[in-house]
Design goal:
The protein is α+β, with helices and mostly antiparallel strands. 40% of the residues lie in helices and 24% in strands. The longest helix has 18 residues. The termini are far apart.
């Protein structure tokens, strides 16, 4: 490692046995021996001349770098690599900006709950590692929200959505996936909750009671909620959502401001 910025890295200037260095706990680069072999293979094939990795800085902080490299080899060496030469570009600022944009896309700006995209990503990741057999999926709809907005204004409507989101975070567990699905519709994915449907119903009633006492700028403005849900069981996420939506419309067709959870 050389150049005017080499002293900013914790990587030694010269590493006699780089493969062995990659197996040490004190290494200053995220590259593994297996990844190095892959880079050499791709480089020898004339492709893959770019990789992203992390390096430890001299102050101990890890930052993201882009590694641009070339492989030097000869036919006499039976196409074995003689050396790899390249340069590191610090992309930490761009990486953090990308992460910030990703986080913004995963969370709803108004309520702080997951956005639709964020919830779908979290549930998909969860389902890949766990059985959804005992999970519950819920849809919450603010009754007559358009008329509500027309009567009290959009600022008041936004405040209602913020209040629903705040109560959801207070009432449900940290491990549950709480989402503003869009507009006035909220989506809950309750992990391993099928054995506690009465407790879930009690929590939803607590939410409904809190919103029934809602006040905006000191004025009482009761808000009612229609809630439909289903036990996920063997359903796919799409099928479970359709079931919960069906339960929601049963509530709406029977007068709204109620809860129904389907068991199959």
């Amino acid at each position: 490692v050389f150049g005017s910025h080499a002293d900013q890295l914790s990587i030694p200037a010269v590493i006699p046995d780089f493969r062995a260095y990659l197996d040490t706990p004190e290494k200053g680069i995220s590259l593994t021996a297996e990844q190095l072999e892959q880079l050499l293979t791709e480089g020898m094939a004339g492709k893959g001349y770019e990789a992203e990795l992390e390096c430890r800085m001299s102050d101990g902080e890890w930052q993201h770098f882009r590694f641009i490299f070339s492989i030097l080899s000869t036919d006499e060496a039976y196409r074995r690599p003689l050396s790899m030469i390249g340069y590191l570009t610090n992309v930490e600022e761009a990486y953090r900006e990308k992460e910030n944009l990703l986080q913004m896309s995963l969370f709803d700006k108004l309520t702080g709950l997951y956005s639709r995209e964020g919830a779908e990503a979290e549930i998909t990741k969860y389902m890949q590692m766990n059985s959804p057999q005992n999970d519950i999926l819920m849809i919450i709809d603010v009754d007559h929200f358009k008329a509500f907005n027309d009567s009290y204004g959009h600022d008041c409507g936004d405040a209602v959505l913020v209040s629903v989101g705040r109560h959801l975070k207070q009432i449900f567990r940290r491990g549950d996936i709480l989402c503003r699905w869009g507009g006035d519709e909220f989506f809950l994915y309750l992990v391993n909750a099928a054995g506690n449907t009465q407790q879930i119903a009690d929590r939803l009633l607590q939410l409904q009671k809190a919103m029934a006492e809602y006040q905006y700028e000191g004025k009482a403005i009761p808000v009612t909620l229609s809630i439909g849900g289903t036990i996920v069981a063997e359903h796919s996420l799409e099928e479970a959502f359709k079931q919960a939506d069906r339960a929601l419309y049963m509530v709406k067709n029977s007068g709204r401001n109620d809860t129904r959870i389907l068991s199959e």
